[in-house]
Design a protein that fits this description.
The two termini are 33 Å apart. This protein folds into two domains: 179 residues, 3-Layer(aba) Sandwich (Rossmann fold); 234 residues, Dihydrofolate Reductase, subunit A, CATH 3.40.430. α4 crosses α5. The chain is α/β, with parallel strands linked by helices and 489 residues long. α12 links the parallel β11 and β12.
């Protein structure tokens, strides 16, 4: 489609908008295609679109009928968008919508001009503000000035969507009027997601009026529950919800096949002292973060050394969520049969042992699964009871070559376990890192110096600093600790 293509108005006669120019706009959320449109009344509009390259995804002109990208129609608001006003939530919504489109990797934000003050213009909006200062609500202020409660028209916005090939969308809006207007203009709204951002004391009255008198949606839903279900919510009604989406949304959006690792270590790079004591190294916030990661994956993978040293439960206890399958890498069968992971049935447990493994003496367990080479499905399963381990444990005998990280990933995926958390210890995480098996790595740095001890995560050695890989990274605080997230793939 050329840059001078024209979309018709609802009448099909006079052009509604003309596409004038296209360029790129780098933002803190990523790079967007920025396309400028001119309305037949002289109004200028902007569309910010992902993916950047035309023809590479759902938001480009080749959008298929089976795809419904996220779209935000954002009415211009100088005071909120540019000046950071807290009288409304417009600026925060603008930033959140761009971030959500970038997280999904496909979608469009239309910055619709001529909508200042719900269509009454900037100076009239300031007059309405003055009335609101005297106690009049946002709706009655417009009416008192002789304007309708909402004077916005979405004809040109619908024409821009048609020009972009976006005739079937998921609309990011808490305003049902936008959905009705677009539907009347021939745009199919597959879903309208509420657009909520954390509220401030200064805009509570404004938001309350829109919801009680103008039919806007009120915040509903459980953000963490949505993430657990594999969906990234569009909205974050509270700062805590905003943090959850920011911290775990990209992980959830990665898809069904992802391998992540997590490690907490001292400032000088140790996960335990020389005596092996690593208990309570990081703080409560990091523990909750670890449990959230466990809840978001299908299986948590640990080496035998971690089980021997710490006797962990490897369950989700500090946050709501399901327990993952516990996968124990133990080629030499070093894990004591008295370990919690082998004696407590809180979660299915997959015990990966060498092909020469001999079962312990028979116990009261009634059933146990012993399989060669990684066949079967899921983390559980049962077989004969002669191997003497508990019902929740599946013993899987592997050849030595199958303990290589990339082979282990394949073994687990064949069993239906494709979302993996490599949790420990340092040697296990480092091996998965060195072989390129990790998509993301979370390293929590604890402000303490141990001097010596059990090393934490280590990357492949390089001879020169310039040769060291520098993956995309971000940081967030976990109480007194700092977590660094590396996006490796």
């Amino acid at each position: 489609m050329s840059l001078t293509s024209i979309s018709q108005g609802r009448s099909g006669g006079e052009p509604s908008v003309t596409r004038v120019v296209e360029t790129r706009l780098p933002t803190r959320h990523g790079v967007f295609r920025m396309i400028g449109f001119l309305g037949n009344d002289g109004t200028e509009h902007i569309a910010l679109v992902m993916p950047v390259a035309p023809g590479t995804g759902a938001a480009a002109e080749d959008v298929s009928d089976s795809v419904a990208p996220l779209v935000r129609l954002h009415s211009e608001c100088l005071t909120g968008d540019a000046l950071g006003s807290w009288r409304c939530d417009c600026g925060t919504q603008l930033d959140a919508a761009l971030g959500r489109i970038a997280l999904e990797g496909a979608g469009a934000l239309l910055y619709v001009r001529g909508h200042e003050g719900r269509g009454i213009g900037l100076l009239e909006k300031l007059k309405a503000y003055r009335l609101q200062d005297g106690g009049v609500d946002t709706l009655d202020a417009n009416l008192a000035l002789g304007h309708p409660a909402d004077a916005r028209d979405y004809t040109q916005a619908a024409a821009i969507l048609a020009d972009l090939g976006l005739r079937r969308i998921r609309l990011m809006s808490s305003n049902p009027a936008k959905e009705h207007a677009l539907t009347a203009a021939g745009i199919e709204i597959v879903e309208r997601t509420g657009m909520f951002v954390p509220e401030r004391e200064q805009n509570l009255s404004y938001l309350s009026t829109k919801r009680s008198r103008m039919g806007h949606d009120s915040p509903t839903g459980d953000v963490w529950g949505e993430l657990l279900a594999g969906r990234v919510p569009v909205s974050a009604p509270t700062p805590g919800d905003e943090e959850l989406i920011d911290r775990y949304g990209a992980l959830v959006a990665t898809g069904p096949d992802v391998v992540v690792a997590q490690m907490a270590q001292s400032l000088d790079g140790f996960i335990a002292t020389r005596s092996g004591d690593g208990q309570q190294l990081s703080g409560a916030e990091d523990h909750a973060h670890l449990h959230r990661l466990r809840a978001l994956v299908q299986a948590v993978v640990v080496g035998a050394g971690s089980v021997v040293a710490d006797d962990p439960q490897l369950t989700v206890r500090e946050v709501p969520g399901p327990n993952p399958v516990r996968v124990l890498i133990d080629p030499h069968a070093r894990i004591p049969t008295t370990s919690q992971v082998l004696t407590t049935g809180a979660a299915p447990t997959l015990w990966l042992v060498g092909s020469e493994w001999s079962p312990p003496p028979a116990s009261a367990a009634e059933r146990v699964a012993t399989e060669p080479g990684g066949g079967g499905h899921g983390g559980g399963g049962h077989g004969g009871g002669e191997d003497g381990v508990a019902d929740h444990v599946t013993v899987l005998r592997l050849e030595a070559a199958d303990f290589a990280p990339e082979r282990l990933v394949e073994v687990l995926r064949r069993r239906g376990l494709s979302r993996l958390l490599i949790e420990g210890g340092g040697d296990t995480v480092s091996r998965f890192l060195a072989t390129g098996c990790l998509d993301r790595l979370y390293v929590t740095t604890v402000p303490v110096l141990l001097g010596d001890g059990v090393p934490g995560v280590r990357g492949p050695a390089v001879d020169r600093v310039s040769a060291a890989p520098r993956p995309r990274a971000r940081h967030f605080r976990l109480g007194e600790d700092t977590c660094t997230e590396l996006v490796l793939r």
